[in-house]
Design brief:
alpha+beta; 48% helix; eight-stranded mixed β-barrel; 5 helices; Sortase, Chain: A; rod-shaped; 2 domains; two-stranded antiparallel ribbon
Length: 330
């Protein structure tokens, strides 16, 4: 009986052991399958991560290429813009240079034209010429006479002829009721930058009243009233003290006694000069303004000649030279 029980127990234990082994084997297989599935999932995830990293690298490369292309495009645009700006600047400079050349040519043409006009007028209106050292010298310099009838035929506004500065000033003088016209017209009526030498339009008795004012341009080629600029220097005045006015049948000599330049609105030449006191005050102011003392005596009874031109050391400045008529008693 004990034997049977023992056999049963042994057999049962073996069966139980087999069952346990089977269950253990199944559990191990289950664990292994789980591990395999986990490994498979990890492999899938790793592959997904690799693909993601690859896509990220591709996107980064694409983004870099786009940025590079964008920079290249931007640089090209900047270069194109710089080239355009440079080309535009070159065109503008070329145009400016061309315009400058045209303006220089125009001014030279105007200067030569003005010189030619007045040279022809001298030839037509000055008679009894003697031999001159050059074409530019006129009969006035060499003792000739001015044909005022020929001048009036050329222009009825002609009233005088002025000569000074060793012939640098040697022109007919006109008088009209419109000063602006003769700023841009020669006495022959031609439009020219040289204009004319003209008497102030408000003169009632030119060269016979207390003061006669003459205007002329300060031309850069030395023509018209440019020579007045020399009177800034007292040494020049020492050797050029007089100016001559020729009237029909009459010659007037004037002695220069003051020279200065000033802002146009501050010039004293337009002050009231009706009374002797006003004229005396005017003469005192002139001598105070003069750049040097000439020691020339001038009184309120004298006749003055005032020459005015532009002066370029300041904006809207004028150079003014005053002269007093020389009488027989001087």
């Amino acid at each position: 009986m004990f034997f049977v029980l023992a056999v049963s127990l042994i057999y049962g234990n073996r069966k139980f052991a087999k069952l346990i082994d089977k269950l253990t084997h199944l559990r191990i297989e289950n664990i292994m399958r789980k591990q395999a599935r986990k490994q498979a999932r990890e492999q899938v995830r790793e592959q997904a991560r690799r693909r993601a990293r690859k896509r990220a690298r591709e996107q980064a490369r694409m983004q870099t290429r786009k940025q590079v292309r964008a920079r290249i495009k931007s640089n090209r645009k900047k270069q194109d813009k710089s080239i355009l700006v440079l080309q535009t600047a070159r065109v503008i400079m070329a145009l400016a240079f061309f315009v400058l050349l045209v303006l220089i040519g125009y001014h030279l043409y105007e200067y030569r034209k003005g010189d030619r006009i007045y040279s022809q007028i001298r030839e037509k209106t000055i008679t009894d010429k003697t031999e001159a050292a050059s074409v530019e010298e006129t009969a006035v310099e060499n003792g000739g006479e001015i044909d005022f009838e020929a001048l009036r035929n050329l222009n009825p506004d002609c009233v005088a002829w002025i000569y000074g500065c060793d012939g640098e000033i040697d022109y007919p003088v006109v008088l009209s009721k419109d000063d602006a016209y003769y700023l841009t017209h020669t006495i022959s009526g031609e439009v020219n930058k040289a204009g004319s030498i003209f008497v102030d339009q408000y003169a009632e008795e030119p060269f016979r009243e207390f003061q006669t004012i003459l205007y002329g341009h300060n031309m850069k080629n030395g023509s018209m009233f440019h020579a007045l600029m020399n009177y800034r220097n007292p040494e020049y005045w020492e050797n050029h003290r007089t100016v001559t006015i020729y009237l029909e049948g009459e010659k007037k000599e004037y002695r220069i006694f003051a020279a200065y330049y000033s802002y146009y609105s501050e010039l004293p030449i337009y002050d009231n000069m009706e009374t002797q006191e006003e004229r005396a005050a005017y003469l005192a102011r002139i001598k105070a303004l003069s750049r040097y003392d000439t020691e020339v005596e001038v009184s309120a009874e004298d006749k003055l000649l005032t020459l005015v031109t532009c002066e370029y050391s300041g904006e809207d400045y004028r150079m003014v030279v005053h002269a007093v008529e020389i009488t027989e008693t001087d």
